[in-house]
Amino acid sequence: MEAEGIATSAISAFESTFQSLVSGNTGLIPESTISPAPDLVESENFTGDADTSYLSKTVVLKLNGGLGTGMGLDKAKSLLTVKGNDTFLDLTAKQIIEMRKEFGMKVKFMLMNSFSTSEDTLNFFKENYPELAAEDGLEMMQNKVPKLDAETLEPATCATDPSNEWCPPGHGDLYAALEGSGCLDALLKDGYKYMFVSNSDNLGATLDLDILSYFAKADAPFTMECCKRTVNDKKGGHLAKRVTDGQLILRESAMCADEDEEAFQDISKHRFFNTNNLWIRLDKLKEIINASGGFIPLPMIKNKKTVDPKNDSSQKVVQLETAMGAAIECFKGATAIVVPRTRFAPVKKCNDLLLLRSDAYILVNNKPVLNPACGGKAPTMALDSKKYKFVGALEEATEGGIPSLVECEELKVSGLVRMSRGTKFVGKVEIVNNSDEAKFVPCGTVTGKLDLTDAVGAGPLKPTVVKTAPIEGQKPGTSGLRKKTKEFMSPNYLENFVQAAYESIKESGTNLSEGSLLIGGDGRYYNPEATQIIIKMAVANGAKRIWVGENGLMSTPAISATIREKGPAWQKAYGAFILTASHNPGGPDEDFG
């Protein structure tokens, strides 16, 4: 670690967790040693005491070290598109910029990046938010620690990729990174006193002036935002009070003995969980670091992995991590408050991502909030965990757009499906597909149970991308595009024109999943071959429904009449390719259009 230039504070913190590992410390917190956390103050009661003067002394820091490997990502998770065209970082940046405008002061913004996310993140800010990218101290780097051989506890090796020998030490590294990088001293020197920290994937965690004012006036060294546990939260960690000294602590599931499991999951007893939204007094943090020998000793978290995360057969390793919320036990006088669930909206699974992308959430001041039309309760999501573990699978399932969830109570999906913006889920919905082939969920209102197992499949079609160049003179006139048949039959000629047409209609906002494409012609030479090419091009461009005249034959007036037909959205045509050259003769040496 010294050879890698890692700071002394980070090395000391790693030594502390390593000693816990080799000493056999279980890290268990028996039920007999704790009592339930007391009643907590609720932030929704903070009104009328907001003081903007605290903003100039406050730093907003987002934890941005995660790659989102659990969702199949190989880049910063915060660069994932979550609402419209906006990523997590887009919305966070817009929140900061808007707050600065609203209060007329420069609220300091920082990111704790990892060696895996730094380059992508900084490039993103340079391209999209140059005013933030140019600020001093935007980035603070998370440290890295060696992975350990699971048997020998020696540093692991990976000859194929030495970078796999290292891992982030968890967000508990926040304190060592602040100290070791010199950021903590620099912030104190510049007059900063308060820091608000949250995860980059939690868009509900905005800088709340009421909470900041409460924290500052309470003169607490550390305040944790908590939410009330529900049945869905019973297996997660909880806040508690240590019997010996009354200190608030966190007990995670890994810290609970088997015999205490029932008490651990009793949400009427242990009522609060950590949102990982923390408020820290920087001067008090410095005092504790100095008193503890240059780092904050945090409980060890032991994760069993493989040295190559993409190769399950590679060397078994142990990764040592710590959690930043665990520091609550290190701050004498630390407090906790209850916040509404709107401040805890992390995206951990594709369930969360689909819900956030849907109309069940709307943006208010660049913050996702539950659509009022949902009646105060978000739909319960249960996508097939095997089929939709990774974002790529969700992207494929929603290629036709995101279905409406605003009137949905529950959505359960089993098997591979293809959804579109033309579908509206209402009430309790269960979609079942027991076949191996993806099936389309129909447009229109869907409610109750829908078994698609025997429905026509989406098919294993995979578009091929072919690079071509523009063809000189290929542009339609008043009667469309008309050329000699041989010119149409030349390499990529028809394909180029069809692709150009689709690029145009997609750019204009046409919803390809809702309408149909019509294809028909007068039966002249090359009509069947051209029809096949257009069908393939249309499907590759996202067309979901295509009408073709029988044997490819359909007159121009018939196509015109069909386009004007009324009916459900899927019956309406967004356009047609008519294969004709009017009265001109057809044939290999004649005309095509």
TrEMBL record:
The keyword Kinase does not apply. Belongs to the UDPGP type 1 family. Belongs to the phosphohexose mutase family. PANTHER family: PTHR43511. It is an enzyme of class 2 (transferase). It comes from the Eukaryota. Keywords: Nucleotidyltransferase, Transferase. It comes from Fragilariopsis cylindrus CCMP1102. It holds the Pfam family UDPGP. Residues 474-588 form the Alpha-D-phosphohexomutase alpha/beta/alpha domain. This is UTP--glucose-1-phosphate uridylyltransferase. Its EC number is 2.7.7.9. Signal peptide: none annotated. GO terms for molecular function: intramolecular phosphotransferase activity; magnesium ion binding; UTP:glucose-1-phosphate uridylyltransferase activity. The gene is UGPA.
